[in-house]
Design brief:
Keywords: Signal. With 222 residues, the chain is mainly beta. The chain is built from one helix and 15 strands, in the order H-E-E-E-E-E-E-E-E-E-E-E-E-E-E-E.
Length: 222
């Protein structure tokens, strides 16, 4: 038998964790998000099949992902973290082609953490996905596409200049709701630094600096 203090502590942690996870206002959507659904395992035989999947939202906690299994609508609610395991069942073998994401919605979370200024802080998962827009200075601007994936607080992906087709690798980290990374410029190998912050539920502010020149702009989530 566990000592009473340990039991009380365990119960307190469980209750506070549950409260934090459940404090989502699903009557108050605050924006869109990007959903990914991966198949972890499949089983079954003729006429009766199942699959264990992981449903992930770029918005993290308090998300609702709507998708289809073949022609049957499905919905997964993510109350905490950025993903939720799900069991799917069908009469045909379940493959990646069987599942198609339809809609991802982010909802208000009363327990979202706040930064030192009192603003709601964002998790690294916010930056996951494809972003597109233009960056530059004054009237000189060019298209840019970011393809980003997130694991923990690390961000990996590519940055593609649409006018030249140049691609650089993104290897960054997220701290305090800010994504930062550095890379070597393709033209001369000189270092460049990038700082990205959330602008709205589906847009980010991009600022890249190199050799005393700063290029900035807004990118939208695709």
């Amino acid at each position: 038998m566990y000592p009473k203090p340990i039991l009380l502590t365990a119960c307190y942690v469980a209750l506070t964790s549950f409260a934090a996870a459940a404090d989502c206002n699903f009557a108050k959507p605050i924006g869109g998000c990007r959903a990914t659904i991966s198949i972890d395992s499949v089983s079954g035989s003729k006429g009766s099949y199942s699959a264990e999947v992981t449903v992930k939202s770029s918005a993290g906690a308090c998300s609702k992902v709507e998708y289809y299994l073949d022609n049957t609508p499905q919905t997964t609610v993510i109350r905490s973290g950025s993903s939720e395991p799900e069991s799917l069942f069908g009469t045909k073998p379940i493959t990646k082609k069987s599942i198609s994401a339809r809609k991802c919605t982010s909802y208000a979370n009363a327990n979202a953490s706040k930064d030192s200024a009192g603003n709601r802080a964002i998790g690294p998962e916010f930056f996951e996905g494809r972003w597109q827009g233009s960056v530059g200075m004054l009237l000189l601007r060019a298209g840019l596409v970011l393809d980003l994936s997130v694991e923990g607080n690390e961000v990996r992906g590519t940055s593609t200049a649409q006018n030249s087709g140049e691609v650089v690798q993104v290897n960054g980290t997220v701290s305090g709701g800010v994504l930062t990374y550095t890379y070597a410029q393709p033209a001369d190998g000189r270092p460049a630094s990038v700082r990205i912050t959330r602008k709205s539920a589906n847009s980010i502010s991009y600022s890249g600096s190199a050799s005393g020149v700063t290029l900035s702009g807004t990118l939208q989530r695709l």
